[in-house]
Amino acid sequence: MSKVAHKIKEETKPLFRTSITATEIDFIRETDNDAFLNLKYIGQHTKEMPGGLSDEGLIDNGTYVFKAHFSNDKSVEIWLHSSFGNKKKAKAYADKLTSRLGKLPSFMRNTLNHVVIHTGDHTAFAEDVGGFFVLYSDNMDTRIRNNDLEETVFHETSHVTFDLKYAKSKMWKKNQATDKAFITEYAKSKPYQEDIAETALFVYTMKTNPNRLSKEIEQWIKINIPNRYKFLEMFF
């Protein structure tokens, strides 16, 4: 019996520790189609850059600002901290992000106001109220090597897209209580912060790329979290 099949028998236990780094699933592939068209340099401007790893403060004078354009969509600005040192280095990391943004569903990409990128190594996070998420250059490189940056961008954008309206809603809490199980330990540990973003990646993959997940995983989802699956599949 496979590990996944064994876990399916234990219905209330999460299948994975986390959706991205604790699985070997390539949910969104580098070769998948994307809507990215071009990247335009806007200039250096003063921006609020939360999440900095040093003591430079919230306000960054000289942020490198680029604007990414997508087919049939509004554009998304990418703000790179002045610590990148020059336009060329900043653009290299903007370029690493654009195709990943392009693979997002249009309605999700359209909820983003901008993306912040810092130098250094730290885990990405989202600010749903502000409509943006934050990435770090070294962590981006690690996630690219592990084929995880597409999923990271999807996860953080899911926070921006869904959390304010649904994460703590009566409807979502009712679905959680009825389903009882969680797809990952991370979702279970933070049910009102991470459950939607963790679950959405699986549902999106099932709807847009059938058979990319194993039949065992798809079965587990439909049996153990059917209400959250039915809710999220309406979006994809």
Structure keywords:
alpha/beta, 2 domains, 6-stranded mixed beta sheet, 18% strand
Task: Tell me what the structure shows.
With 236 residues, the chain is of the alpha/beta class. The chain folds into 2 domains: 3-29 and 166-233, no CATH class; 36-146, no CATH class. The chain is built from 10 helices and 6 strands; from the N terminus they run αβββααβββααααααα. The chain has helices spanning 3-9, 87-102, 106-109, 137-145, 149-167, 170-179, 185-189, 195-208, 215-224, 226-233; strands at 36-48, 59-70, 76-80, 114-118, 125-127, 132-136. Strands 1-2-3-4-6-5 form a 6-stranded mixed β-sheet. Helix 5 packs across helix 8 and helix 8 (195-208) crosses helix 10 (226-233). The longest helix has 19 residues, at 149-167. It is globular.
Concise summary:
The chain has 236 residues and is α/β, with parallel strands linked by helices. The protein has helices spanning 3-9, 87-102, 106-109, 137-145, 149-167, 170-179, 185-189, 195-208, 215-224, 226-233, and strands at residues 36-48, 59-70, 76-80, 114-118, 125-127, 132-136. β5 and β6 form a beta hairpin.
Strand content: 15-25%
Rg from Cα: 18 Å
Helix-and-strand structural type: alpha/beta
Strand sequence of the main sheet, in spatial order?
1-2-3-4-6-5
* Strand segment tally: 6
Give the topology.
Blueprint: H1 3-9, E1 36-48, E2 59-70, E3 76-80, H2 87-102, H3 106-109, E4 114-118, E5 125-127, E6 132-136, H4 137-145, H5 149-167, H6 170-179, H7 185-189, H8 195-208, H9 215-224, H10 226-233
Parallel strand pairs: 3-4, 4-6
Antiparallel strand pairs: 1-2, 2-3, 5-6
Helix pairs in contact: 5-8, 8-10
